[in-house]
Structure formats: structure tokens, C-alpha cells
Amino acid sequence: MSRRAGGRAARQAARLHAVVESVPYLTRTLAPVEVLSDEGLALLEENADTILEQVGIDFRDAPDAVTLLRDAGAEVDGERVRFPRGLARQLVQATAPREFTQLARNPERSVVFGGANTIFAPAYGSPFVRDLDNGRRYGTIEDFRNFVRLANASPWLHHSGGTVCEPVDLPVNKRHYDMVAAHLILGDKPFMGSVTHPQRARDTVDMARIVFGADVVEQSTVVFSLINANSPLVWDSTMLGAARAYAEANQAVMMTPFILAGAMSPATVAATAAQTLAESLAGMAYVQLVRPGAPVVLGSFASSMSMQSGAPTFGTPEPALVLYTMAALARRLGVPFRSGGALTAAKIPDAQAAYESANTMQPTLLAGTNFVLHAAGWLEGGLTMGYEKFVLDADQLGMWHAFSKGVDLSENGQALDAFLTNEPGTHFLGHAHTLANFESAFYRSPVADNSSFEQWESEGANDAAQRANAQWKRALAEYEPPPLDDAIREELDEWIEQRKASFPDSDV
What we know:
- There is one protein chain.
- The protein has 508 residues and is an alpha/beta fold.
- The chain has three domains: 75 residues, no CATH class; 55 residues, no CATH class; 308 residues, Trimethylamine methyltransferase-like (TIM Barrel).
- 46% of the residues lie in helices and 14% in strands.
- The strands form five sheets. Strands 10, 11, 13, 14, 15, 16 and 17 form a seven-stranded mixed beta sheet that branches. The protein has a four-stranded mixed beta sheet with strand order 3-4-2-12.
- The N terminus is likely disordered.
């Protein structure tokens, strides 16, 4: 039994070491799939302008935003802001960058938003976590730190993400200090900042100034953050305040409508896409007025829903069509695009989780998405972050890296010499070309089991989740945080301690 276990461990180690090289981000070679003609996309742009002009967007409890937009030419009626046709697009296109770089603490892991680039980040915002050993439970700061470690260790995730799970064991008004510190200390990939209050956004920027240097933060993007619209057709003061705090510091935001079609938008693809464009345009226009040139990303999160229960559904055809459409609209606008992820309503990493996640990731990549939030770990419609699901999703991201390279037409890729030096009827297993390529020719999954039934059974008959369970435990046991200058770490710790002591704990 020990011999079999040792052999299994050796094979798993070999598979893991085959993919240890990390890449800072994925650069696609395949042209994006288009589902609408230019005429169809232009029609949706006209519809978005009609929504902005005739219906308008509410900027709630945000008099500074209303004033900025009115001064820029918008029509204001209380909190309702209507944009003359084309105004929001003009404000965005005049100053928003087509591409921008987010610096990482490790410069080799910096990422470029826009163009043919795709960036994978973990799931975001779950109050619960799940693993095979302890089941579903509320997330803690140690769970949060674990997922930061796992993201940093994965070669296929380019970004540390943001609220990878909600650490409910910490006060609501102070937990952002520990979350941002985890990203800055335990990892060296790019990260996302707090958005639950404008002051928490400013705290994030201040912490980044300590680690990166104030001059670097002023001149470069080191923080990226998620700003959600309160659909339908509302931007609220909390999200706008956080967006303003980041824009004033020249840091990046993605302005993302979160839409369950049929409830928060009409129940059709075209209507959902037009509304998404209108809401995001209004938000990005505001950011450009706060600080012209501040990096922005057009975000789209659109899900279908069960018309029987009202629950969100994932992996269905309609959100995929919205995703393809919005990616094309973002390219026409000239800003980076965010959408997609390994989304599922499944409660555990089962077959439903696998096919729903695959059905979302495929259009995500084929549409040409630039930033993929929720690329690993998502369960239960986003309510739960799964340890085993994280590992299984990360493995799939590795496969997408291989796919995105397209077809190799180099001399080695064509392999004509192999044909010319191999007799018909003779297999290629021992040919020099095969021997030169066998280690890199095909993606090698560290999780999948491709052995015989007898071997699989003798080694414990473990399913994919059980194999993933062993892998995340091993990754955490072997993890070593990247080095951080002792003086910087001390300054950051002291700053956090002083800030926490300066006001009382609160649950809001």
C-alpha cells in the first residue's frame, strides 16, 4: 500500500512541477467571436443613448456627481441625470485610456488591461466558504489569507483579486485593513481595493502608498476596484464615493452593472446589453470628470434567472450572448472589458458546477474579455467560495492558457520533417520530433486522473474534489510568502494599528 501511495504522490508531483512557471497575463492569438454585425451593435448603442437621454440615470445621494455632470452638459432633475445623445460616450472616449498597466509588487507580475490581453482573478464577495472537511461555513480572515496564498501560488491566476471571501470574524468597518494587508504581504500579484465606503477606498490607497511609494501611486495604477451599479439605472453614493476616491488618486475602477435579466432589466438579450452599456457609460463618464484619464473598465455581469423561483441561473445561453455583445461594444467604445468567470449555482463542486462554469468560461475567452473576475472558486451563485472548486477552476484556467495560444504554424508546429522521415504505417511515438515535444505538446492537468480503472481504484478511487482537496492542502503547507522589506512591513503594520485604534468597531 505504501508503494502505491508513494507512486501516486510522485506522479502528482510530476504533474504539478510541469506547470509551475507563472505567466503575468494571457495574450490571446485568436480573433474574438462576434455574434452581431456592426449594424446590430450600432443599434444597441443608439438604444443605450435613448435610455440615457429619455429615461436617465439616478445618481442617488451624490450631489457632487450631479453637479459635475450638469456642468459637463447633462440635464439634471433632482437626482435624475439625463445625457444628451452621445455626451456620455464623448466624455469617456475623450480621456479614458484604451489600455493601462496595473503594477504588481513583483514587477514581473504586472498586468496590462485591454487589447488582446486576458487577466484571471479569483471569485469575489462570498460570505461563506466550503471544503470537504468542514463543509459550508462563514468565512474568516484565515480563509481569506488562504485564498490569497492559493491565488499567488497558482501559475494560472494573474491577479490576487479583492474580497476573495468575506472575513465575518472581523468588524465590518475595520476588516478592509486586514484584507488589503493580506494582498500586500502574502502575495505579490496585482490586487483589488475596498469599495464598501469611500474612506475605506482612501485607506486602500494610503496602504498602497506605504508599500509602493507615494510617487509611484501618483504616476501609476497599483489598485484596481469593482464599482457596481444598483441596477436598474441607479448609481448610489457608496459606490460613487469609492469610485471618486480611486479616480482622484489615479487608480483604476471597473464600472459594472450587476443585472439579473427579467428582474433588473427586461428579459431579453438586446435590452440587457443596451441597459448595461447605458449604466456603465454613465459611471465611466462620471469617473472621467473626476479625473480625466483615470483608468476605467467597462464591466458587465449579466445572469439569467429562474422565472419560477427568482433565483439566478448560470451557464445558460442568454448571458453568453450578452457577454459576446458587451465585449464587442467595449471594443467599439475603446476601453477594456470585464465579464465572465467560472460561474455556477451548484452548491458543491459537482457535475452541475463543472458544466455551468465551462459554459461561462468558454464565451468569456472567445469574446475577448480583458479582466475575468470570479475565475476560480465560485459556488452557490457567489454565496460560497470553495477550496476544491478553486483548485479545479485553476486547472481549467491552465487549459484556457493553452487554447488561447492558437495553432502553432512554426516549423516545429508544422512538423513536416517528421512526416518526411517516418515511414507510412510507423507510429510516431519514438520519433525525434515526438521526443522533443512530448513534455510540452499537450496540457498536463495536475488534478485529472487518466489512469486505468484498476490503478485508480487501487489508489483510493478518489473523485476530482478529493484530489483537489489534497492539492490545496499541499499548496498551503508548502507556501512561502514573497519577500517584503522589513521597514515597509513595519510601517504598514504600525499604520494599520493606529488607524484601527482611532475609531470604535462597528457592524456597518
